[in-house]
Design goal:
There is one protein chain. The protein is mainly beta. It has seven helices and 62 strands. The strands form 16 sheets. Strands 4, 5, 6, 61 and 62 form a five-stranded mixed β-sheet that branches. Strands 7-8-9-10 form a four-stranded antiparallel β-sheet, with no helix packed on it. It has a four-stranded antiparallel β-sheet with strand order 11-12-13-14, with no helix packed on it. β11 and β12 form a beta hairpin. The radius of gyration is 28 Å and the shape is globular. Pfam families: WD40 (PF00400). It comes from Cyprinus carpio carpio. This is UTP4 small subunit processome component. One of its GO terms (molecular function) is RNA binding.
């Protein structure tokens, strides 16, 4: 349980902004005091510059630093506001920690009144990153995490996480390698795994019979894989069309093989071990060079030098990173050391070279990335050498993997964040690609909400938790604090049987059904709530087609379950007191085999929309159980979508931040959607670096669409004009200084709220309350292992 020392609440009215603050939060009482803001009178152009400045600053520094900066500045008093329309906007906010009190704040406007439940008892903990592999041809980045899961990001589509393959217990991964469009991994369990990327599951696993595997790499020709094993052997596997086949061993060594790298020609392999580097001739299998790694001055003789990473260049240069903190360059012809670079006092854990071999990056256990470039030291001279040029400090813990792609350096490690650091010298035009990007959470929803019963289902890798939201007493005035009448309550913890981790899960809107799926099984449970007594019953007899699912969804009346299966098909099952019965299967006309990652059902139970990894969106008529239409394919993946309850229009958000509204009945884009595409969206909106994860609609205001990503909550009013690049996007301060008539003319469709941070889920409940599930990065940092201690200046 974490107690917040203070909580900033914002009260906005048509007359101005009043900042309120609450004192320390205790279990039995809360205190609220009001004070007027002390801020300067700024001209409109100064306000524009001020807000633009803070938005630009948020993009260049971390979230924690940005929050501190914006709250410590006396002039920045609109941060976290939801925007101002002709009528004031108010929040009533209820903050729920496990056993704490509730505080509230009103939000009133033409969009209605919201009571915001800030949920922070979802203790989601992302797993650390262990390996990276970049596919230059497909622009895909594969990421292996310490829990055995594998993720695939589309680098040219804003680094959207388009595929997730869940891990298994006791299945750590040490290395990843692409061979063409096929992905392989190896780990300490001694097996080599190939993945079925179409259906997002393990295709097969074979034993290498060499003990734990420390590294895996494929040659550029795409014909062979090499793995380094605990028993000191480098094993070669031939890559066939159906699966890989063992070919032979290279000369066995006395110590384990830690790292491997192929020469681009495929004729030689460099292997990093304890205290040495070996160069093998692939054709003969014999070692042709043995190079001893220097342990460094002042190092104990009993301490081994571990060659953690090795890179083999086309000119015969071998580059190594070791546990002494050195990056060394070797000549493969003579087997001698060319040059050494002292990078750190700790370990150099990972190396990666660019496609044209003119840049090298090294990741260290201190959390820094060091770049080297192959440059000429004298102008107009051909003599070049490797020179240390840049140092990036974007991690707090060990960096276990780095990869240099076309225009950026990608790194990951123990702090579980995937950092994309752009190389500005390779970017010609400023765009979203030139911004620092940190990916903390999955681009999938881990929270499911039973809107009609106030229940929340939290998905962990190995279990599910069901919670009931708390309640506050009565209604208060704007800015008031409400005492908790009922604390949030954990009702159920459901553990997964077997070794597979959970792929997807859902709770029905009525709260009576819970379903989850792993890569091999699907489980459905009936939940019974009798006053304070909770019981759960497993549905033992399920239709055979419900063996596993990529995505799960219930109908709005909880009478049907939709299960996304292989080849973009969706199975329908009816639910009743007697059990589960198979109804039919929906198949797309396109014949796509890609897995479905999003499902959306209409409120009236007539329509179902699905989105797959081919960027296809199919709409089905549930009454006829046939395909109704297909939305025109867009170049960017769909990240969130929803069907409007009043108009039955499908609203879609894409990874490039574009939005579309499609009329299902008319089978065409709506007039509003065409206006958006014709006029374009504001650059501040398009340049956001995190995808939208949910689309909601307010039944009391049909023109309002509610969206959220990790950093903000946005309400789009389709009745207001769209802002252009000349319009002030974050315009709360400007609207505050205008009269009511002027405010109407200056208002635009986007109202952005940044009060909440590190958002995992936002849901609009039937009682017009908002549930905001947050997972503060500061809380995650406290659960990480301690980083390497570094001496600070003047300490």
């Amino acid at each position: 349980m974490q107690l917040f020392s203070s909580l900033w609440l914002w009260k906005l009215s048509c007359k101005g902004i009043i900042r309120t603050t609450t004192g320390q939060r205790h279990l039995k009482h809360t205190h609220t005091c009001f004070r007027k803001p002390q801020h300067k009178h700024l001209q409109r152009d100064q306000l524009q510059n001020s807000e633009d400045y803070w938005e630009r600053r948020r993009r260049t520094i971390g979230l924690k630093e940005w929050d501190h900066a914006r709250l410590s500045d006396p002039d920045w008093v609109c941060a976290g506001s939801a925007g101002l329309d002709a009528v004031g906007i108010w929040f009533r906010e209820c903050t729920h920690d496990r056993e704490e009190g509730t505080q509230s704040e009103d939000l009133r406007s033409a969009m209605g009144e919201f009571k915001v439940h800030r949920v922070r008892f979802f203790d989601y903990m992302p797993s650390g990153i262990r390996a990276l592999a970049f596919n230059q041809d497909t622009e895909r980045m594969a990421v292996a995490r310490m829990d055995g899961s594998v993720e695939v990001f589309h680098c040219s589509d804003r680094f959207f996480q388009e595929k997730i393959i869940p891990g298994r217990e006791q299945c750590g991964i040490e290395g990843l390698s692409w061979v063409g469009e096929r992905l392989f991994s190896a780990g300490l369990n001694g097996g080599i795994t190939e993945y079925d990327l179409t259906n997002q599951k393990v295709k097969y696993t074979i034993d290498a019979y060499g003990g734990p595997i420390w590294t895996i790499t494929g040659n550029q020709q795409g014909t062979h894989l090499a793995v380094g094993c605990e028993d000191g052997t480098v094993k070669l596997f031939e890559v066939n069309e159906d699966q890989i086949q063992f070919e032979r061993n290279l000369d066995r060594q006395k110590s384990r093989i830690i790292s491997l790298s192929w020469h681009p020609s495929g004729s030689k392999i460099a292997a990093g071990m304890m205290d040495m580097i070996q160069v093998f001739n692939v054709e003969t299998g014999h070692s042709i060079h043995r190079m001893l790694a220097d342990r460094g001055a002042g190092t104990s003789r009993s301490k081994e030098c571990v060659v953690w990473s090795v890179v083999y260049l086309s000119d015969g240069t071998i580059i190594t990173g070791d546990s002494v903190g050195m990056v060394k360059l070797w000549d493969d012809q003579t087997g001698t050391l060319i040059k050494s670079h002292n990078v750190t006092k700790c370990d150099v854990l990972a190396l990666s070279v660019s496609q044209n071999e003119d840049s090298l990056v090294a990741g260290t256990s201190e959390g820094i990335v060091v770049q080297f470039q192959f440059v000429s030291m004298v102008l107009e001279k051909d003599d070049k050498e490797w020179v240390r040029t840049r140092t990036f400090r974007n991690h707090t813990h060990d960096i276990r993997a780095v990869a240099e792609i076309t225009t950026a350096v990608v790194s990951g490690g123990m702090d579980a964040q995937l950092v994309v650091r752009p190389l500005l010298d390779k970017i010609e035009v400023r765009s979203a690609a030139s911004a620092l990007r940190k990916i903390h959470f999955p681009h999938r929803r881990l929270v499911s909400c039973a809107r009609k019963s106030g229940l929340m289902l939290f998905q962990y890798p190995g279990h599910l938790e069901l919670w009931r939201l708390g309640e506050s007493e009565g209604k208060g005035t704007p800015g008031s604090s409400l005492f908790v009448k009922r604390n949030p309550e954990k009702l159920l913890q459901l553990k997964v049987k077997g070794e597979d981790h959970i792929r997807c899960s859902a709770v029905s809107p009525c709260g009576g059904w819970i379903v989850y799926s792993t890569a091999s099984t699907l489980r459905l449970y009936r939940l019974h709530c009798d006053n304070n007594n909770i019981s759960i019953t497993k549905i033992s007899k399920l239709p055979k087609v419900l063996s596993s699912a990529n995505q799960l969804c219930f109908s709005s009346d909880s009478s049907h379950l939709f299960s996304a299966s292989a080849q973009s098909s969706v199975h329908i099952a009816s639910l009743s007191q007697s059990g589960c019965k198979f109804v039919g299967t929906l198949k797309p006309k396109s014949g796509s085999h890609q897995a479905i990652h999003l499902l959306a059902a209409s409120e009236d139970g007539k329509w179902l929309a699905s989105a797959n990894s081919d960027h296809e969106v199919h709409i089905y008529n549930l009454q006829t159980q046939k395909a109704h239409c297909t939305v025109p394919v867009y170049s960017s993946a769909v990240t969130a979508m929803g069907i409007h309850p009043a108009t039955n229009c499908l609203f879609m958000m894409h990874a490039d931040q574009q939005m579309f509204e499609y009329s299902i009945e008319q089978k065409q884009y709506t007039d509003w959607s065409r206006t958006v595409q014709r006029k374009g969206l504001h650059r501040f909106w398009v340049e956001r670096d995190t995808p939208c994860l949910n689309v909601m609609f307010n039944p009391q205001n049909p023109s309002h669409v509610i969206l959220h990503d990790m950093y903000m909550l946005c309400i789009i009013d389709q009745s207001l004009p769209l802002p252009d690049d000349k319009t002030q996007f974050y315009n709360q301060l400007t609207l505050k200084s205008l009269t009511e008539e002027q405010r109407k003319s200056q208002s635009h469709a986007f109202k952005v709220c940044k009060t909440f941070k590190d958002i995992l889920c936002v849901e609009l409940m039937p009682d017009q309350s908002l549930v905001v599930v947050e997972r503060p990065l500061e809380d995650i940092a406290t659960q990480l292992p301690a980083p390497i201690k570094q001496k600070k200046f003047a300490t």
